[in-house]
Amino acid sequence: MAVASVASIDDPLWTATRLADTLALDMRLVRQALEPLPSRDLNGRRAWLLRDAAPAIFRWVWKIDRAESNPDLMSPKDRLDHYRAERERVKLAQETRTLLPAADVEQAISEMLKVLAQALSSLPDSLERECGLNAATVGALHRQIDAARETLFAAVSNLTLAEPSVETEPQEMDA
Q1: Rounded-to-integer distance, Cα 30 and Cα 169, Å
Q2: Using one digit for the tens of pLDDT, what is the confidence trace for 117-151?
Q3: What does the buried/exposed string (b/e) look like for 3-33 if buried means 16 or more CB atoms within 10 Å of the residue's CB?
Q4: What pLDDT is attached to residue 67?
Q5: Residue 5 — pLDDT band, cuts 50, 70, 90?
Q6: Per-domain residue ranges for the chain?
Q7: How confident is the model at residue 16 (pLDDT cuts 50, 70, 90)?
Q8: Which CATH architecture has domain 13-65?
């Protein structure tokens, strides 16, 4: 009766079967990932160095550096199909309102900021009438609100200047 030996992880050469079993991955996926790598012969079977095989499998599983995830590496027909599918994905996202045009987002933010600015402008007078604030306190409140509005304006201006283009680029919206 032959005693099965347990191979050490330090063993430099691993077969596709051993890698698939250890990583709990499908054998076909492991073989596809290892195909471009140079292999060595181990008892009549192909084997790879673990330090080369593990990163290659990782890149394959996570679709890093693969043509199917990078349109620049695709054939022209696959690239066309990819961009058509992306266009359809964007259309669906717009129809379901999970993707909004940048112009709509800008308009909504603009309306919100107008309401905020008007509320801030009327706050000192309202507090003077309702709380009986004196003129010095109202003046200080006006100065503080004006400074806050200027800071808000500068922050919004910096955001719009930082954007490369605002043409029709849609913006993702968290659902």
Answers
A1: 39
A2: 888 888 888 888 888 889 899 899 999 999 988 88
A3: eeeeeeeeeebbbbebbbeeeebeeeebeeb
A4: 54
A5: low
A6: 13-65, 71-96, 100-172
A7: very high
A8: Orthogonal Bundle (1.10)
Reported confidence tier of residue 6, pLDDT bands at 50, 70, 90: low
Q: What is the pTM of this model?
A: 0.44
How far apart (Å, rounded) are the C-alpha atoms in residues 76 and 139?
A: 67
DSSP 87-155: HHHHHHHHHTTSEEEHHHHHHHHHHHHHHHHHHHHHHHHHHHHHH---HHHHHHHHHHHHHHHHHHHHH
Distance CA(13)–CA(85), nearest Å, equals 41
Q: Is the dihedral of CA 113, 118, 124, 127 positive or negative?
A: negative
Looking at this protein, which amino acid is placed at residue 70? Answer: N
Q: Which amino acid is at 51?
A: R
